[in-house]
Design a protein that fits this description.
By secondary structure, the chain is of the alpha+beta class. It contains 25 helices and 21 strands.
């Protein structure tokens, strides 16, 4: 297949008329006409390529950008906090005190961080769809599609050496092959203390005005030397003025704008309530555990923050789906499409009803919600399945065990991150209790998992009995394959074996349902393309997207919300709240605060269309200069997962002037500053 070519003239003819600053646009189908007509700026292929190759995807689910020719990367502190936490110890808390590598030799190597930079995109829709034949059952169609995608990815990986992922777009209406340059030697360079980075904590999360220095710097290495990155974004201390056109290049995780009303109703009535129940349990338990001991608090800080963030985000999105006016708007928008493809909508509705019968078990057993979703059980399952999948043909393997994914799998499997068995036990006990609550203690699978014990006792037995925290043990089992796994009496390996057959069947059933929905969405996409042209943007898929907007405040009732905040506002907010957590500042900050210009802009808002995964995305101006760092959405913007509105919804960014001033006056990060600004 020929790769996409950027043909501005053709795109101008195909794109619909300009509208609000909506869209997470493919780099192969940028909003050329909209931006040209509304703002008088022409997006060129060269401008796009530079931005594309300056943009970085973080494996943990965030974004970033190169900001020097020597692999220096800017992202959010909250994107990097998991790595910062892994690099911390009881005696060296890098979240609490921050970190700065005064020399290149002091940069800290991350245990398991993978970064990806998009190099090329190819349309493989025709080849993928040709693999599915008329008359095939959903299972047969899913198997055929999985096999052809595996073949495409392996061919690309073997030919280029790049990570190669086939990305599903338009809910199955198109398939594109994304090739990434992969970096697995990544080192921490600078991070502010968490009090400054996450000022306001949970109370201010998803609010504006905000006062967060939510930034940190990493560096990509190759062959034990800083990577050469000729595509990088130039630093512009002055940032962007109110009303100025700005762009965001990042990796939004997932939106649901093109799903059907039936799918939104499933999220409203089942998916989100399930997730909130899980979050509330975990947050309460983790906070109680953290309050018992200072070391507990350090070990669980990242988990607590992530749980709180998820709670507020999902509650806001659920609130949107519970708004009858918004759901009526969705129903009205489907009317014409329903007339064009009534059978497709009916199949999706039937598939959603069918999924109700097994969805909870799928989440608990295959997704891993019953076992802490990660941690040592996840390691056990990876070892078991890696051994099982290795003997299968490439096209029949589960996606995560195919050859092109091996490097990522091994990076995670052999990570040197610290493992705390007391925290592992706590999480597993909570998850096993949740399993009992959802399936009932009399369920045969639940009884087999608990082995006649309570969740707390069983969790302690499993975690204390395992040796999978030892990298050497993991490596021996991985390299030994099926024979080593068969001989292992590790309790977590045994547990993974116990549930594997049922888990695989649930996954297969889920994939068959997804195939039914994907085929239906292809019909709907055909109707949509006939109506709008094929230049409409697809839902977010954690693939690189471009959005545009302007720096702009808004009105909330009678209150005018300004477009930016300052250091002065940060200190006023702290004093007004009595300087108690999370509105307090570190001793280091307070000692140097008088050196900061109080009118320095700190955070600002814009109409850029973003969602989760955009955290760490660069904000650039017409010249491609870096003028901001996305770190959040305000609360009205969270419903944009389903419906975009620029009335009050805003993207929230850190201003480069604040980053530069804090690094210079508070943290004295002179080496990095010189690299940024020269």
């Amino acid at each position: 297949m020929r790769p996409f070519l950027l043909l501005p003239g053709l795109l101008l003819a195909m794109l619909p008329a300009a509208r609000a600053d909506e869209g997470m646009w493919l780099f192969t189908k940028p909003p050329v006409r909209q931006v040209k007509e509304k703002y008088g700026f022409e997006i060129t292929p060269a401008w796009l390529e530079h931005l594309q190759k300056s943009s970085v995807r973080f494996g943990s689910g965030g974004s970033g950008s190169f900001v020097s020719a020597n692999g220096l990367i800017l992202t959010n502190h909250h994107v990097g906090s998991g790595m910062i936490e892994k690099l911390s110890t009881k005696d060296r808390d890098l979240l609490k005190h921050g970190f700065y590598a005064a020399t290149a030799g002091e940069e800290l190597k991350c245990p398991d961080l993978e970064l990806n930079v998009l190099m090329s995109i190819e349309d493989v829709t025709e080849r993928v769809n040709a693999a599915v034949k008329d008359g095939q059952s959903p299972d047969e169609a899913a198997t055929a599609r999985r096999a052809v995608i595996a073949g495409i990815e392996k061919e690309s990986f073997d030919a280029t050496g790049f990570r190669s992922d086939v990305v599903t777009l338009f809910q199955g209406g198109a398939y594109h092959l994304y090739r990434y340059h992969r970096y697995t030697d990544v080192r921490l360079v600078f991070a502010p203390d968490a009090k400054a980075a996450a000022f306001g904590g949970d109370p201010d999360n998803f609010e504006f005005p905000r006062f967060c220095l939510d930034c940190c710097f990493f560096r990509a290495y190759e062959n034990d030397a800083p990577a050469k990155t000729p595509h990088f974004l130039k630093w512009k201390t002055e940032g962007a003025k109110e009303g100025e056109l700005v762009f965001t290049s990042g990796h939004p995780g997932r939106t649901n704008r093109s799903v059907t009303l039936a799918q939104l109703e499933a999220l409203r009535d089942d998916g989100f309530p399930y997730r909130l129940e899980q979050i509330f349990r975990a947050e309460t338990l983790l906070r109680a555990w953290a309050d018992r001991d200072l070391e507990n608090a350090r070990r669980s800080k990242g988990s607590i923050v992530g749980t709180q963030n998820g709670r507020k985000a999902i509650m806001a999105r659920l609130d949107g789906l519970l708004d009858p006016a918004l759901m009526a708007r969705k129903a009205a928008s489907e009317t014409k499409l329903r007339e064009a493809a009534p059978a497709a909508f009916a199949r999706i509705e039937a598939a959603e009803k069918d999924a109700n019968a097994y969805q909870t078990r799928l989440r608990l057993l295959e997704t891993g919600d019953a076992f802490g979703k990660g941690g040592l059980f996840s390691t056990a399952r990876t070892l078991l399945r890696a051994a099982d999948e290795a003997s299968k043909p490439e096209g029949e393997r589960l996606k995560e065990y195919r050859e092109p994914a091996r490097a990522s799998l091994e990076l995670d499997l052999f990570s040197t991150e610290p493992i705390y068995k007391n925290l592992e036990t706590l999480r597993l006990a909570n998850s096993l209790t949740f399993l009992c609550a959802k399936l009932g203690a009399a369920d045969p699978t639940v009884q087999g998992i608990l082995a006649g014990k309570s969740p707390d006792t069983r969790a302690a037995e499993l975690i204390q009995g395992t040796t999978l925290e030892d990298i050497a043990v993991r490596r021996k089992l991985y390299e030994g394959g099926r024979d080593a796994i068969a001989a292992s009496n590790d309790p977590l390996i045994q547990l993974a074996k116990l549930i594997d057959a049922e888990s695989r069947k649930l996954r297969q059933r889920g994939e068959a349902t997804e195939e039914v929905i994907s085929q239906a969405h292809r019909e709907i996409a055909t109707a949509r393309f006939a109506r709008d042209g094929d230049s409409a943007y697809p839902d977010a898929t954690f693939s690189l997207r471009l959005s545009y907007g302007v720096v702009k405040g808004y009105t909330d009732g009678k209150e005018t919300v300004p477009a930016q905040t300052t250091f002065w506002g940060m200190h006023e907010r702290s004093e007004a709240q009595g300087a108690i957590p999370p509105f307090d500042l570190s001793e280091e900050w307070k000692a140097e605060a008088s050196k900061l210009d109080p009118l320095t802009p700190m955070n600002f808002i814009s109409t850029n269309d973003i969602t989760g995964g955009n955290s760490g995305s660069p904000v650039v101006n017409r010249d491609g200069d870096l003028v901001g760092l996305i770190f959040d959405s305000n609360a009205p913007g969270l419903v944009s997962d389903f419906f975009y509105s620029d009335e009050k919804g805003r993207a929230v960014s850190v201003h480069p002037a604040a980053i530069q001033a804090a690094m210079e006056k508070v943290y004295h990060a002179d080496r990095v500053l010189k690299e940024l600004t020269h």
